[in-house]
Amino acid sequence: MKIVTVVGARPQFIKAAAMSRILRETHVEVLVHTGQHHDPMMSDVFFTELQIPHPDYDLGISGGSHAQMTARMLTALEEVLIKEAPDALLIYGDTNSTLAAALAAVKLRIPVIHVEAGNRLGTLDNPEEINRIVADHTAKLLFACVPSAVEALKKENLQDRAYLVGDPMLDAFCHYRQWNGGQPPQTLSGLDGHAVRTPERFYYLTCHREENTRTDDTLAQILMAMESLPHPTLYPVHPRNHAAAVRLGQKLKLQNVKLLSPIGYLESIALVANAQRVVTDSGGVQREAFFAHVPCVTVFPYAVWPETMPGMCNVLAAPETEDILAKLSVTPAWSDAASPFGDGHACEKIIAHLPEALR
Ligand code: UDP
Q: Given 33, 38, 114, 208, which residue is catalytic?
């Protein structure tokens, strides 16, 4: 089969790295990069480090409002799909690139395959939720990472097209975790251009959700919590809150929180796996902390990945210093049960389902 895959953002590059390697053994893949994440440390580093095939199309579309970005992608992707006439479109997750690709394909009657289907917060206040719902309802095939996602799809009457296969992020984690012997690099690149030595003990922070970056106050609360901890915090700053992080770094005279440039995936999973604790609002990072058995505090009002939460392995916190510190003091209990995220072979299972399900 000929499959057009559309990616555009950091977490999609990682899933595509796990998938493309195997997909191309038996199918023809045309890779389209929308350009949603485009700078060297948000895009190129993933293609190079993870040896993702060079995109066949690089649309160069980023920035603007949600509507402007999605509209430009929609038009450009329609052209690509008409030209390539694939048997199916493959999309991941919940970004504007996912939404635009799903809409462009379904109107051309090209079957849509949605990987990471069924996650729900239960609110349209979250911009990614809208993308998830549209992608799931336009797709012909829904591949869910976890049982709670299948339950959500049942509630929306989508169970006939849904398969529980596990999480491609676990596939990627298992495949790449031994890079550098599983150790983080000795030095990292500070946001101010200086090298930062990786301390022996550290916390790992990522924060970029719209909910946590609308005002400086929210990020300030998170940074003040991290500043007061007994070990340094390593914080690769997402371009979305670069300016706010620099501003707050000066205002709060941060010493213990090390502001870093965005890092590559291999460095990121090594930091997750070796951190004392992880504090994040990222869907990917909270799962990686769970995969590595590192306690995690997720600064977010909704449980996106409820399977990480039993035993308090991952605990939600409000964006308030006191609450984050209270949640960081929790001692989790890890379960010996099989991982709810599968066995690290989700991509193989997805590919095995394609011929039958798309017939
Ligand atoms: N990540 C990375 N570099 C960073 C921060 C995160 O490679 O500087 C990785 C992280 O380990 C995870 C993925 O990016 O694999 C998560 O992406 P992001 O937080 O942008 O998206 P989300 O998972 O929230 O959709």
A: 208
What is the crossing angle of helices 96-107 and 66-84, to 10°?
Answer: 40
What's the 219 CA to ligand 1 centre distance in angstroms?
Answer: 18
Q: How high is the pLDDT of residue 214?
A: 87
Known catalytic membership, residue 27: no
The verdict on 134 and 53 lying in the same domain is yes
The tens digit of pLDDT for each residue in 239-298 reads 999 999 999 999 999 999 999 999 999 999 999 999 999 999 999 999 999 999 999 999
Sheet holding 257-260, edge to edge: 257-260, 233-236, 203-206, 278-280, 296-299, 314-317
Residue 55 has pLDDT above 90, yes or no: yes
Residues 87-141 have pLDDT tens digits of 999 999 999 999 999 999 999 999 999 999 999 999 999 899 999 999 999 999 9
Q: Domain residues for 313? A: 179-328
CA of 282 to the centre of ligand 1 (A): 7
Centre of ligand 1 from the C-alpha of residue 243, in Å: 19
Q: Whose CA is nearest to atom 10 of ligand 1?
A: 285
87, part of any domain: yes
Domain identity same for 83 and 215 = no
148 in the same domain as 276: no
DSSP string, 122-190: S-TTSHHHHHHHHHHHH-SEEEESSHHHHHHHHHTT-GGGEEE---HHHHHHHHHTTGGGGPPPSEEEB
Of all atoms in ligand 1, which is nearest to the CA of residue 265?
A: 7
CA-280 nearest atom, ligand 1: 19
Quick check: 3 pLDDT over 90?
Answer: yes
Residue nearest to atom 24 of ligand 1 (CA): 282
